[in-house]
């Protein structure tokens, strides 16, 4: 089985975005805010938005199951306050849940949190619990910068985040560390902010002893780990200069990288540098890069092709495609086993 | 000849840091500010600080000439105002100039600018002109984020920066895009902020038409280009989705990457993905990573070893070591030729 650990609902019916625009327009006059019940999307609309997009590409490319979360760039935690984020997260998570019920063989949910700048992350726990316990979600997306490019939150190693980590460990769900839209004009969202956040999060882990406090906490760093594998020597050297243990011992029981790297040399570096047990197959399809690479004639984000062409043994490839995901997302493994897979 | 395009004066005599600490301590009471003349460093002290450090390692490792600029993390443009930065930049640049006079075969200067958050970059022009015309400096370090990790400046593509670019083009000096210390607790300086800035700067160029306005402007992106070469497919794809020309045509007459990547797989990827004409040898020695890699027994930042071990022809290696630098830094080439090299 091929499990894609990183897919967002980027193709939701346009009614969702219209509802959100009304919510944003009402920020200055909350009496104008749309009710949740005013968003009406039928199962047929959901089915169509998936069947002609993600599911069709999964079939074409040969992946089986996607860990599916709300559109990352639309989380926009910087907009409004906790109440605004809370309503928005609930709506987006419920849509992913409905997709997972409509296509139970192909999609399983990961939660968006109702984060808001300056607000205690513990406020996100009820939504996380609901998604895991009621919706069967197996993971969560954690935004290390709810300000959207101003980086005003404490580092991930700060006790600020600990209540959330305690709940994650209790529930047995890993977090993908994933920012949302940048509202800082310095940072292009998918070309700079996403990759910077990946590198930043890794370094926050490296400089801290977070995983001594939470040995069972697991972070997935998306987009191939940002700049990290390319600069693995730099990070090994920095850790050594700081008298930290070797990275393998210090971080690699808790930190994992996905394969959202959109060319062969990048995947070759990732699979050479990072231990195979720490790599999870992913494409972020349909996501940041949607075109065909003129150098290959195939979609940039058809990452399975790069994994297939890399110098990996069949056993290692199986770990990246399935084995690691079953280990790192125990609720995914349990859900699959419950369905006889 | 082997030219290292990225060296900072990280080993300046301790009197420099003590003077700076006095300058910072006097921020709230300018009458306490030390005079420039109170900083006394003899030629013997300068000689010793170089001969036992950078120059010794250059000889051991086999590089010949370093483009040498003030310590990047000490620029700290966020401290004080333009006056504070101006005095500090003048002092730091003069020390690099004195090093270049004491060791003219081995060091040539690159300027630090007296940038300050919110201040018009045109204010930096007199210092730049002085460094180039009086000190014979061949390049400049441009900080895209003088706020030190808060990213409050406009993108590099903004007209905000144009007066400086006009002067750079007139003088024929390229800019290394290099941030300084992060005072944002989210970003570790050398493990996150530096790499993020490299990626950010590249994406600011990609999304703009800056080099249509300045066809002769040249940027060197340090630290191997941050995350860029590892994600070259992503950047090619993003440019294509934005209807920009192919990256080679769009950016690679103006943007260059150094080789400050501290392990073999990273250098192998860089030299495979980026055209050889766009790669400049560099080590940033003595810099961010100072230890010995236990996997190789050699210094992490001895980047010449990786270039030697990479799959490059002798002609291509010569471009990376010397030819590209002579082309991209025309004042360096002229200075070398004037000395019969």
Detailed description of the structure:
The structure is a homodimer of 341-residue chains. Chain A has 341 residues and is an alpha/beta fold. Helix content of chain A is 44%, strand content 10%. Chain A has helices at 14-25, 43-51, 54-61, 72-75, 82-102, 125-134, 162-171, 189-206, 210-213, 232-241, 247-250, 264-273, 303-309, 314-328, 330-338; strands at residues 3-9, 65-70, 107-112, 139-142, 175-177, 219-221, 255-258, 279-280. An eight-stranded parallel beta sheet of chain A has the order 1-2-3-4-5-6-7-8. In chain A, strand 7 (255-258), helix 12 (264-273) and strand 8 (279-280) form a beta-alpha-beta unit. The radius of gyration of chain A is 19 Å and the shape is globular. The model of chain A has no long low-confidence stretch (mean pLDDT 98). The interface between A and B is large, with 59 and 59 residues.
Oligomer: homodimer
Biggest pleated-sheet summary of chain A: 8 strands, parallel
Treating each run of at least 4 consecutive H or I residues as one helix, how many helices of chain A? Answer: 15
Arithmetic mean of pLDDT of chain A: 98
Q: What gyration radius of chain A follows from the Cα positions, in whole Å?
A: 19 Å
- The helix content of chain A, as a percent range, equals 40-55%
List the main descriptive attributes of the protein structure presented here.
341 residues, 8-stranded parallel beta sheet, 44% helix, homodimer, 15 helices
Spell out the blueprint of helices and strands:
The structure is a homodimer of 341-residue chains.
Chain A (H helix, E strand, L loop, with lengths): L2 E7 L4 H12 L17 H9 L2 H8 L3 E6 L1 H4 L6 H21 L4 E6 L12 H10 L4 E4 L19 H10 L3 E3 L11 H18 L3 H4 L5 E3 L10 H10 L5 H4 L4 E4 L5 H10 L5 E2 L22 H7 L4 H15 L1 H9 L3
Parallel strand pairs in A: 1-2, 2-3, 3-4, 4-5, 5-6, 6-7, 7-8
